[in-house]
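Action item from last week, closing it out:
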Amino acid sequence: MKHSFVIILLLALCFFGCEKDDICSNDTETTPSLIIRFYDVTNPNTDELLDVTNLYVQGVGNDDVLTDYEIVATDSIAIPLKTTENSTQYSLYEEYVLDDNDTPDDDSDDTVTGNEDIITITYEMEEVYVSRACGYKTVYRNVSINLEPDSDNWIQLIRSVDDNQSVEDETEQHFKFYH
């Protein structure tokens, strides 16, 4: 009888001593990316979407191309922002072409053609508590984008969707680029 009581007591302690697993679900919103949609500049009042052909997106000072944006045709992009600095820069190429000069194993003679525009995104960061399992996410406030002027900008106009634009989720666009 004593052994039965001890076993029942141990099982009860094990059952009540358990707690929910701390697993961050894939459905939980984390630090959002900035959503940019591309529009036809010839009629900016109608907001007609227009694909950018041979789009190539790369962070300035980063040798790696942004995943999913290596020579694509698209009318929108989702780009991550830095969480360690108050600004992020990207090179956006239109009509990007890499010519390897028939020497695919030798990168030293490769040439790139296309129209490169450099954008600088500035913002204020705020950490928001999500849960014990997921920790914190960063949201961005007062987001603005500046286009580095050159002699042949393919991006003609940049508009934020809201005044004092913030980036809190990835459910809708944040900026409109007209080209």
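Closing note: Residues 2-17 form the longest helix (16 residues).
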